[in-house]
Design a protein that fits this description.
This protein is α+β, with helices and mostly antiparallel strands and 263 residues long. It is 26% helix and 29% strand. The strands form two sheets. An eight-stranded antiparallel β-sheet has the order 5-4-3-2-9-8-7-6, with helices on one face. It has a five-stranded antiparallel β-sheet with strand order 1-10-11-12-13. Strand 7 and strand 8 (166-172) form a beta hairpin.
Length: 263
């Protein structure tokens, strides 16, 4: 059964519950540290497409499996639980969708990813605890259309640019170039929008290679571990290190580290 106190205990938070930007930052960061992204239950192409239509989660069941049971989750589960938590705490919370950058350089369909927008003190903050990564460890303030204001979190820079009628979220690690993460429109969604998504994706030229790839990620205090197949990315203070885990024992060690949260 969904329980705010148990959720906050899982996140290691026992401070003020006034719905402020400060609390929002605490909750997203702690969530990414405490609960990993893990698509191993859905890592095959057929199931990967089917789950896009399952975004209206059974909150109590998913809470039991992830917060109580200790497994990781995927975007609609993790962001669904976070949305429920924020609503219970009194935040004005809305649903957004996005198309994630693909291995071929294009973007996935608009309903590929689900995350949250939160209104606080007249501003919109993007809250996302369900992106495999690399992600943003704290909420990003949406500065409005046309602004390319740079926001820096833990050494990584982020900005929004306009392209083809979308807001494109870009990131730049230290010493690297700007690269896109996902694109979205600031149009608030209903969970029912995903009802026939599988049929609508049937003819979409989507790169499906990642749907049958194991994806694991987890944040730590000043960075993130991201594992895409055997490609291991470690981000710390904005600096990135990429390795290919060719040996099975190396791969198993990193998977265990990410899922347990222990370096």
């Amino acid at each position: 059964m969904f329980d705010v106190s148990s959720y906050l205990s899982k996140l290691g938070y026992n401070g003020s519950l006034e719905p402020t930007v400060r609390l929002l930052r605490e909750l997203q960061k702690r969530h990414l540290v405490a609960i990993p992204f893990d698509n191993s239950l859905n890592a095959d192409a057929k199931r990967g497409l089917e789950v896009l239509g399952d975004v209206d989660i059974d909150v109590d069941a998913v809470f039991g499996a992830i917060v109580v049971g200790g497994r990781g989750g995927v975007c609609y589960e993790l962001n669904g639980l976070m949305r429920k938590l924020l609503q219970e705490l009194g935040y004005d919370t809305h649903i957004l969708s996005a198309g994630v950058i693909q291995v071929n350089g294009g973007f996935g369909p608009d309903l590929e990813h689900i995350f949250n927008a939160v209104h606080v003190d007249g501003e919109i903050w993007l809250v996302d605890v369900g992106l495999a990564g690399p992600s943003y460890l704290e909420p990003l303030r949406f500065p409005g259309a046309g602004s390319e204001e740079i926001q820096t979190l833990h050494g990584v820079e982020y900005r929004f640019v306009e392209a083809d009628g979308y807001h494109v979220l870009q990131r730049r690690a230290r010493g690297a170039e700007w690269g896109p993460m996902y694109r979205f429109r600031l149009e608030y969604r209903k969970l029912s929008d995903w009802g026939d998504v599988v049929d609508r994706l049937a003819d979409f030229p989507l790169e499906l290679s990642l749907l049958d790839t194991r994806l694991h990620s987890r944040a730590f205090d000043n960075g993130q571990w991201v594992l895409i197949g055997r490609r291991y990315l470690r981000i710390e203070d904005g600096r990135e290190e990429i390795r290919i885990l060719a040996k099975p024992e190396q791969y198993r060690k990193v998977v265990d580290m990410v899922l347990r949260g222990e370096a």
